[in-house]
Amino acid sequence: MGLLTQPRRRWRSEPAEKEPDERQVIATRIWVLRGVILLVFIALAAQLANLQLVRGHSYEQRAQLNQLRIEPVIPSRGLIYDRNGVPLVENVPSFAAAVVAADVPKDRELEIAAGVERLLGIPPLETVLRLEEARSSKDPFAPIVLKEGLDQADAFHLREQLAALPGVQILVESVRRYPQGAAVADVVGYMGRVDEEDYAALKDKGYIASDRIGKAGVEAAYENYLRGVPGRKEIEKDASGREIRTLAEDAPKPGNDLVLSLDLDLQKKAQEFVTQAARGGQGAAVVMDVHTGEVLALVSLPTYDNNIFSGKIDEARLQQYLDDPKKPLVNHALSEQYAPGSIFKQITGAAALQEGVASPSTTITSTGAIQVPNEYDPSVVYTFKDWRALGTLNFYGGVAMSSDVYFYYLAGGYHAYGNNFNGLGIERLARYARQFGLGRPTGIDIAGEADGIVPDPDWKKRTFGDDWFLGDTYNMGIGQGFLAVTPVQMVRVTAAVANGGTLLRPHVLREVRDAKGNVVVPPGPRVEGNVGVSDENLAIMREAMRQAVSWGSASQGAVRDVSVAGKTGTAEFGPRFADGSYETHAWFSGFAPADDPQIAITVFLERGVGAIDAAPLAARILDYYFHRPQQRAQSDAAAPTGVMP
Amino acid sequence: MNWRTTPTREFDFLLLASALALTAYGALLIYSGSLTTYGSPGQALSHPVSRQLAFAAIGLACMVAISRVDYRLLGPLSLTLYVVSIAALVFVFAVGASAYGSRRWILVAGTQVQPSEVAKIATVIMLAKFFADNEQRMRSLRVFVTSLAIAGLPALLVLIEPDLGSALVFGVIWLAMAVIAGVRPLHFAALMTLALALAPGALYAIAHDYQKERIDVWLDPNKDPLGTGFNILQAEISIGSGGLLGKGFTHGTQTQLDYLRTQTTDYIFSVGAEELGFVGAMVLFGLFILLLFRCLRVANLADDAFGRLMATGVVAFILFQVFVNIGVNIRLVPVTGVPLPLVSQGGSSLITVLLSLGIVQSVLGHRRRRGPHRI
Question: How far apart are CA B179 and CA B170, in angstroms?
Fold first, then answer.
């Protein structure tokens, strides 16, 4: 029996029988099956090896991406104070409901949209459409904000309810509130959500898709200081987007605080005075320290309330601002350019003194106009008017009375009818205008500055294809014609006259402090260069401007107990009326005290006359600046010492 | 004729060992795959691992019991078994419970039973009986067509559930058994030509929309990475990220953070590949190859066509399910819900497979000793 348990021996010993033949056939078929089995497993193993061994590394990374999300931790944004420590902005929490498309299971999309409708009142179709859109976008993990500006109680209530809605979350954001609103909106600016284009560039700097960024004013200019350094949080998430745990956190570094040079009291008063003088039109005023370039007040009218951009944008009011022909969102102190009129005579005069074209004793007689015959056809005579027949004037008188004829001579010279006075000529005039910083941005730390225009023959050829004539030089000499400036450009022209020729870079930032109150960037003058006019010559200009206020055309700019030096301007613009007159802008640009200059001021009114409207306005602002002992004492007491409140 | 009536009583312990090893392998993966839902194995009785082990015990008991019974007794029962399982398929279509859009199971004594699993084994027995009875007429077209119909009927019923994967299992069972039984190559060629001419278009035409979508997404899962393509992509990521040695048992991030769906049933292979790596998968392959080769050995040694064909049928349906299930996981095959034999969670499949292996053991153990000239 023992042998019989070895069945194979049997057919080996009977090869001739029919049965083994059949067995052989079957054995072959079974070998085929064995081959099929091996082939199947070889095929499976090959594909498996391809996935795990050949491409394993890339799948490993994808598994990591799946599970780990590195999320930026947004730092708390720096605050902004005026020069006396008065806060111009505060951070307040804002709650928003958002949804992450990648975390919404597709088969539960409708259920979740219905839940969102119940809790937030958003139509389900809208939710579904936005989910679909986000799914097909490049970043399905970016939260889509469904509803902004939830109040705190609602937000907490919602948070409990949302547990049943995977993918939906409550975002807590910090938004800006500007307690001073419109008073400083043109300086402080506002923030807005990062738009898609910006986001592409900002993503690597730790911004998130629903982030906000400074869009205007100091908020935009000093985004880098204010933003701080975002932290990073490495979190583990499961397939429905629930945070399982924080693996590592790199704490954010809070943004730095800005102390502005702005003097809130002065700013508010200046705005109030300009508002009264502008009578609903555009207006601007800039007050600057003549030694440091610190801007103490910067007014642009009409202005706007920057709080409408915080949290949920107030669309109705935004539209109102956008539709307003007076352009409240535009900064009229630096983004719009106008003809300067006679305040440009500061440059013509200083240049003429420096070039020896004029001296204090140069006398010129204004009979109310000068005639210039056409170069090629003397029978054609052009007339250039003065604003009045002012008689014979020396340099001081020419400036003080703002004689246009006097400055025609200085700018273009006068050689007709037996006269032989050599002027500056356009090349030199344009060069000095540029040396005084015109024709380019001043570099003030508020975004959106206009360049202005300093015309010359080249420029005219390029722009109009036309030749430069003597009349163009005359017009430019009195600040008319093609010349265009911004109020901020002119305040630094006046500051340069006042400080002995230093061309400053106006700025509203006084110093930067870190969150602990340490000064990171100290205050100090910011100098761009020198205007290229000697102090003796500028002293003559200063004296002339002092006389303009004490007895001349700018006498409305006088302030009790303070000697003011200044120059008015009345710049013609727009179409000519039937009587030959034009609409005029009113300007005043001056400094005080005249003998020891501290501040320069430039005011601009869209409609008016320099001597009548602008000079008194400047005087009111200067008066407030120099005569407010009690306020100053108060604000000095409140001055920041080390740590910000 | 004493030698013709004494069975060998041989029992293939290697076959048993490989089946038990695969079941244990599966239980471990089920444990790992259900950690997120069940936390710890604390909830003893309701825990999927306990349930799986209980089913394994039942299956094992069935296997041993069947192996002791002469498989020849199944011959007379084959028609009854077949008719009952066909009736069950019709029944499930009429009143069965639905999951993921198809009706696949009925409740028997509070347990979900998938009649298609039972039908597989009934069809194997029925086909084996039919081929064995017609051993001398294998060249007849009538035998060929009838055998095709025997496999085709349950396939059709399963197809309209709809469960394309299981329907194909019947086709493969028939194919393997017909080859071993020795049908005429000409008939095969004719059938293949016909099938190749009609199949792709016809399949696509009768396929349900969800099946079409599955094929489209299989070709490019990135079409819908967060919807239908999600499982395909996540399985691929799970497997690929496992690398050579895997991330360690219960340390698969994809599995433990729920990125992998149905991770104890259709996608259980991905759990193993992620946590145990290529090496772990090769161990699994080795166990399957051992199991299948031991079954083929029985087919080779079988006394008669009936036993041989049943062993072959069992090999065919196990092999095909392994191929389809793992193929889906590694994106070699479009998504079809076929369990991985012995490994996937689910009582019907586990018990059916163990029971089939019992039949194979019976074929091995009830051979008559031969070689009278030696006595």
Answer: 14
Contact, A554 vs A565, CB < 8 A?
A: no
Name which of B292, B315, B323 is nearest A44 (Cβ-Cβ). B323
Collapse the DSSP code of B200 into the 3-class scheme (helix H, G, I; strand E, B; otherwise coil) and give the result: helix
Range from A368-377, A565-574, B256-265 carrying the lowest mean pLDDT: B256-265
Q: Are residues A540 and A434 in the same domain?
A: yes
Q: Are residues A12 and A156 in the same domain?
A: no
Tens digit of pLDDT for each residue in A20-42? 577 888 888 899 999 999 999 99
Contact A41 B308 (CB under 8 A): no
Domain that holds residue A26: 3-54
Q: Is A301 inside any structural domain?
A: no
> How many C-alpha atoms does A233 have within 13 Å on its Cβ side?
15
Number of domains in chain A: 3
Query: With a CB-CB cutoff of 8 Å, which residues 111-170 of chain A face chain B?
Result: 135, 140
Q: Looking at the domain assignment, is residue B154 inside a domain?
A: yes
- Domain of residue B339: give its range: 16-37+72-368
- Asked if B239 lies within 8 A of A52 by C-beta distance, the reply is yes
Residue B45 belongs to some domain of the structure: no
Find, in chain B, the residue whose alpha carbon is nearest to that of A135: B226
Please tell me whether the peptide bond between B162 and the residue prior to it is cis, using omega within 30 degrees of 0: yes
Give the gap in angstroms from C-alpha A82 to the nearest C-alpha of chain B.
Answer: 51
Q: Based on the fold, state whether residues A159 and A100 are members of the same structural domain.
A: yes
pLDDT tens-digit series, residues A113-145? 888 888 888 888 888 888 888 777 766 777 788
Residue A546 φ/ψ region, left for φ over 0, alpha for ψ in the -120 to 50 degree band, beta for the rest: alpha
User: Does some domain include residue A305?
Assistant: no
Q: Residues A109, A39: one domain?
A: no
Same domain for A553 and A421, yes or no, is yes
Q: Chain A closest CA to B88's CA: distance in Å?
A: 31
CA pair distance B336, B217, nearest whole angstrom = 12
Judging contacts by C-beta atoms under 8 Å, the chain B residues touching residue A110 are none
- Tens of pLDDT along A487-527? 999 999 999 999 999 999 999 999 999 888 888 887 777 89
Q: How far apart are CA B212 and CA B218, in angstroms?
A: 10
Total tally of structural domains belonging to chain B: 1
Judgement on whether residues A516 and A599 belong to the same structural domain of the protein: yes
**Residue ranges of A 216-275 with Cβ closer than 8 A to chain B:** 236-240, 244
DSSP class of residue A312 equals S
Determine which helix (DSSP H) or strand (DSSP E) holds A569, and give its type and residue range.
strand A565-573
**Which residue among A3, A40, A57 sits closest to B319, beta carbon to beta carbon?**
A40
Which pLDDT tens digit goes with each residue over B202-235?
666 666 666 666 667 676 666 655 555 677 888 8
Question: Which residue of chain A is at minimal alpha-carbon distance from B288?
Answer: A41
Domain assignment of residue A568, yes or no: yes
Q: Is residue A464 part of a domain?
A: yes
